[in-house]
Amino acid sequence: MTMVTQAAALEDATNASPGPRQPFFPRKKKRIPGRSIAILLFLTMCALFFCIPLYVVVVTSFKTMDQIREGAIFSLPHVWTLEAWDHAWNKACSGINCNGLKVGFWNSVLILCPSLILSIALSIITGYALALWNVRWANAFLFLLFICAFVPFQVIMYPLIRITAAIGIYGTLWGIAVVHAVLAMPVLTLIFRNYYKDIPQEIMRAAIIDSGSFWRIFIEIILPMSGNILIVVLILQITSIWNDYLIGVTFGGLGTQPMTVILANLITVSTGVVAYNDNMAAALLTAIPPLVIYFLVGKFFVQGITAGAIKG
Amino acid sequence: MQLRWSRMMPQLALAPAVAVTFVAFIGAIGWTAWLSLTRSRRVPEYEINWSEWTRQYERLFNDAGWAISLHNLVILGIGSALAIVFGFILAAMIDREWRGESFFRTVFLYPLAVSLIVTGAAWRWIFNPQLGLQNFLHGLGFTSVSFNWLASPETAMYAIILASIWQSSGFYMALMLSGLKSINTEIWSAARLDGVSFWRLYLEIIIPMMKFTFITCAILLSLGVIKAYDVIVAMTNGGPGNSTWVPAYFTINALSAKSNIGYASAAAITMLVITALIFLPLVLITTWQQRRANGGSR
Predict the structure, then answer these.
(1) Helical H segments across chain A, by residue range
(2) Is B185 on the interface with A (CB under 8 A)?
(3) Which residues in chain A are contacts of B275 at CB distance < 8 A?
């Protein structure tokens, strides 16, 4: 909050001084900063609106319940305490289990790892084969994948439950991981295929003449060229798998729920006294991993979500 | 030998993806469609009585809960469309003003990084009547303000819309910003030389030039609205009563709470039809216009 206002004040200060642009039109010099201030003021107010939930969640998570009952939602904590964070991590209840969010955290990690490997391995090879090798039905299949990318999950939910149950992975971490990989396959394949289709055919011809086989070309030429798109897809997948709720709640068993499901159980429970500070600490704990990724590699994050969204 | 391998291997490598597509997508859609024609309840039945094969759909469209869901879907769609408008305004302003671009972009986009369950939790807390924003405003003297939206069936949907606008406008801003940046800079200077007014510049030149970006946003928005589920669970769990049900919620509720497989399947297939009805025209328009824009070279 303070950071935002500071930045706004700073920007307002820079506006007040006349800009160096357009020295030949002294009249305009005055008008443009005026509009700039209006724009910046508007943007700052919007930025404040966007920051309200984060600010409220953060300060609430450090408050004691006594202070929360006073009802001043925007006030800073009288005493900063980590009690709620400790409680959310170690003792929060999901149904009858009261082992805290840490169970969910590790479940989410254990879902994430195999799911990332599976989904990326499956779609990178599919994308590569469709883009660079002459498969006669490639276009028809791509069209099919494009359609599949838009199918609402509810339509295939019950059959997927039955199929995973038949394989024996329903209600396990593997079940969730496999379903994530299956659902991500169409979009990721389209992303990889669009990236590879711009590789010149000459490179592929030369590689084939050099007696390169399908897999050798993939490992020695294509994979080293795929650094950027791999990072984009990795970020897209990490955030979407981590933030998923529906697949986790549908395919997770009692002890295998990801973090978001435990958080949802926590906030929707209506019995007894609701510990809002615990809830907000739990929400923050769930939000921290993707937020860290976002602030560290924001550029790739934006690329990832826009690529994933435009194609699917 | 070499040649044969190079022809076989790509197809072999595609086999897993083909299998997944035909089992998990096409097969599963067919399975659900079939179930929607049967009398399945808790246990699936695969026999179709052709004299009454539409019974699940007939029941569905006589169900008040489904009517509410469809009604909410429309409200949610119209309300969330504000996120596109808002996103465009933000993008246009950020694009006009070079100061603080990356700062504002970062602030507007961060909601997208967090789970909708987290978003719902945060807004649920802000809407808390005793301790949240309403209490704060009353403390300031605005005692007539009611911000207890989640408790009343008439306003709960607006709370959800507010939260989803908060979550997604940054995303539309990012799409619009890249659209604006791809516009030739000469247009700006030409417009300034000709003395085109601010509003005419945007309404008659910039927005028509960005129609593909707008169509993309509209497609994504409508898909997101049809899929909206997490935010409902986190904020209202369908309540109060069933006033915030949407088709995605209705379908899962029919499957898990009522354990009625046939009924849930009928609702799911209807969802698929709605998706197709919205999505196919938009995609066809886009491809048709793109082909025309390419000068009919194909």
Answers:
(1) 2-16, 26-61, 65-70, 83-90, 101-132, 138-148, 153-167, 173-196, 201-209, 214-217, 223-225, 227-243, 246-251, 259-268, 276-296, 298-311
(2) no
(3) 150-152
- Which residues are paired to A252 by β-bridges? A171
Count Cβ neighbours within 10 Å for each residue of B254-284 and write b for 16 or more, e otherwise. Answer: bbeeeebbbbbbbbbbbbbebbeebbeeeee
**Rounded to an integer, what is the distance from CA B30 to the centroid of its chain?**
24
Alpha-carbon span B58 to B37, nearest angstrom: 11
Paired residues of A97 in beta bridges: A94
Query: What is the chain B residue with the closest CA to A44?
Result: B104
Residue B109 and residue A267: Cβ atoms within 8 Å?
A: no
Q: Which residue of B has its CA nearest to A310?
A: B216
Is ipTM strictly over 0.85?
yes
- Of the candidates A224, A221, A219, the one whose C-alpha atom is nearest the C-alpha of residue A206 is A221
Residue of chain B whose alpha carbon sits nearest to that of A150: B223
> How far is the C-alpha of B112 from the C-alpha of A235, rounded, in Å?
13
Distance, in angstroms, between A146 CA and closest chain B CA?
11
In a mutagenesis test of the B interface, which of A61, A142, A158 is the best target, namely the one with the most B β-carbons within 10 Å?
A158
pLDDT tens for chain A, 312 residues: list them: 333 334 444 444 444 444 444 445 444 444 557 778 888 899 999 999 999 999 999 999 998 888 888 777 888 888 888 888 888 888 877 777 778 888 999 999 999 999 999 999 999 999 999 998 888 888 899 989 988 988 999 999 999 999 999 999 999 999 999 999 999 999 999 999 999 988 888 888 888 888 778 888 899 889 998 988 999 999 999 999 999 999 999 998 888 899 999 999 888 876 666 788 888 999 999 999 999 999 988 888 877 777 766 543
Burial of B187 (0-12, 13-18, 19+ CB in 10 A): middle
Report, in this order, helix, strand and coil percent for chain B, each rounded to 5.
Answer: 75, 0, 25
